[in-house]
Specification:
By secondary structure, the chain is of the alpha/beta class. The protein has helices at about 10-15, 25-35, 40-50, 55-70, 110-125, 140-155, 175-180, 195-200, 210-215, 215-225, 240-260, 275-280, 290-300, 315-325, 365-375, 385-390, 395-400, 405-425, 425-445, 450-460; strands at about 75-85, 125-130, 155, 160, 165, 185-190, 230, 265, 305-310, 330, 380. The strands form two sheets. The protein has an eight-stranded parallel beta barrel, surrounded by six helices. Strands 3-4 form a two-stranded antiparallel sheet. Helix 1 (about 10-15) crosses helix 11, helix 2 (about 25-35) runs parallel beside helix 4 and helix 4 (about 55-70) packs across helix 13. The chain is globular. The structure holds S-adenosylmethionine (SAM) and iron/sulfur cluster. S-adenosylmethionine (SAM) binds next to loops. Iron/sulfur cluster binds near residues 87 and 133.
Length: about 475
């Protein structure tokens, strides 16, 4: 295993040298990108350094083309489920950090987790991202395992959560081996900043201080048998161009060492957090325009990787972003443990709740987000087909790379959306939703037999059948 995944000097040299941003060069990169094989780091940098409006629009169009060609017009929805805000680390941007005495601490018991899950099921969710700070009640990691089990075991009428992704602190190989047995979806871990010097200044206490231990977290996850991993950067801590070049190095490293790419990339921007000055004025604040460029360039650079945007962003940015290549979004989120069943605890001064990790930019309910996604001609998807059929890790990439995943994504998105419309939507959304589904089957599904199959399955769903997937 390589010790240094990120070569700081190499990235600094790349950032400091002159780079071609002429329109002929950018046009060449865009042409190459349309072949869906990604682009190299120098080409990524050329795109990131472009500030010509026309060229940026071409970059946006290319990102949209890639997203639609690979995944089709669908957007996967999920909700974070914060089980605990206990934490022994000192990340200066986070309200959960151990020295923050203003935060009200809480670790949900299993009954409370069951109630939160029921509330998410009542809203129509099927996919959950389980989140916790780095400190667990007395049961230790067993607390997390028990919580995963509780979420999967909870039912509301005929509804249940079909995929639990996890965002918790990195584990040892042995611990990951245990976690892998709990049928989790993706294990997410964000490096926050890949710039070691900045990392050390911002993580000043607890196990997370160790940059190298976190950097090699995904190695241990793969060694422990986790099949899908999701990486991320907390944008605003350091120069975004550095972060993107380093993130791509990290992905290449994992492909080299383990033969598997990463399943998702998350791209949080820092949001105001209780008792954190840094979160109120991030050292490398990122403008909306730069943020959109980051999304589009990542979609072009790693066409087969899911891109996740959370409710940290406001409604307008989220709508713009799914045109640029975002493939998954959270909706109706709360960042405080118990926030779905105790709404009142999510509110606070400046919108930063006294138990919450950070404030939200998008306060719309799942229903409102789905209305908006529908109005923008995207199918809201709760699909968990790949994971349930074992199409994970390398098997997923083998299907995604020749462009075959769309044949699963779009029908599965349609089935799960039809379920939502029957079970949770009002009449107005039902009408708009089924119209969109009809339009999509006609325009986006080429094969006549597939069209017929989809219509037959939709009739079964109307008659009460649930959980159909290819
Ligand atoms: N405690 C674990 C860890 O740090 O890896 C996992 C969960 S942590 C609650 C999830 C993520 O929240 C962190 O990785 C960080 O990127 C993000 N985060 C922390 N403070 C934030 C803030 N003020 N605004 C936006 N995201 C934040
Ligand atoms: Fe704890 Fe994670 Fe927040 Fe850091 S980011 S203080 S580790 S919850």
């Amino acid at each position: 295993m390589e010790q240094n995944i990120i070569d700081n000097n190499k990235i600094m040299d790349m950032l400091n040298k002159d780079i071609d941003t002429s329109s002929s060069h950018i046009d060449g990169i865009i042409q190459k990108a349309r072949e869906l094989n990604g682009i190299d780091s120098n080409e990524v940098l050329s795109l990131l350094k472009t500030d010509d409006k026309d060229l940026i629009n071409k970059i946006y169009d290319t990102a949209k083309y890639i997203k639609q060609t690979i995944y089709g017009n669908r957007l996967v929805l999920f909700a974070p489920l914060y089980i605990s805000n206990l934490c022994t680390n000192e990340c200066l941007y986070c309200a959960f950090r151990s020295s923050n005495k203003t935060l009200v601490r809480k670790a949900l018991g299993q009954d409370a987790i069951r109630n939160e899950t029921k509330e998410l099921l009542r809203q129509g969710h099927k996919r959950v991202l389980l989140v916790a700070g780095e400190s667990y009640p007395k049961e230790g990691l067993e607390y997390v395992f028990e919580s995963i089990k509780t979420v999967y075991d909870t039912n509301l009428d005929k509804h249940n959560i079909r995929r639990v992704n996890i965002n918790i602190a990195p584990l040892s190989v042995d611990e990951f081996t245990k976690l892998a047995k709990y049928n989790i979806g993706t294990y997410q871990l964000f490096q926050e900043t890949y710039h070691e010097e900045t990392y050390k200044k911002l993580h000043i206490g607890g196990l997370k201080k160790d940059y190298g231990y976190r950097m090699h977290g995904m190695d241990r996850a793969f060694m422990g048998g986790i099949k899908d991993v999701g990486v991320g950067v907390l944008f605003g801590l350091y120069d975004y161009k550095y972060e993107i070049l380093a993130l791509l190095e990290h992905i290449k490293y994992l492909e080299r060492e383990f033969g598997i790419g990463v399943h998702t990339i998350s791209m949080p921007r820092i949001e105001p957090a209780l008792g954190s000055d840094i979160s109120m004025s991030p050292p490398f604040d990122i403008s909306d325009d730069d943020f959109k460029k980051i999304i589009a360039v990542l979609r072009i650079a790693v066409p087969y990787t899911g891109l996740i945007l959370s409710t940290r962003e406001n409604a307008k940015m989220r709508t713009d972003a799914f045109e640029l290549g975002i493939s998954q979004i959270s909706a109706g989120s709360r960042t405080n443990p118990g926030g779905y069943t105790h709404e009142e605890d999510s509110e606070g001064d400046n919108n930063v709740g006294k138990e919450s990790q950070f404030s939200l930019g998008d306060h719309r309910s799942l229903h409102e987000v789905i209305e908006d996604v529908t109005a923008h001609n995207h199918i809201p998807s709760f699909c968990t087909g790949c994971y349930r059929l074992g199409r994970v890790g390398k098997d997923f990439m083998d299907l995604a790379k020749p462009g075959l995943i769309k044949a699963h994504c779009l029908p599965n998105a349609i089935f799960t959306y039809a379920e939502y419309l029957h079970d949770f939507a009002d009449d107005s959304l039902k009408q708009k939703g089924f119209e969109l589904i009809d339009k999509m089957i006609d325009s986006d599904i080429e094969n006549e037999k597939t069209k017929k199959d989809i219509r037959a399955n939709l009739a079964e769903i109307e008659n009460g059948k649930r959980d159909i997937y290819y």
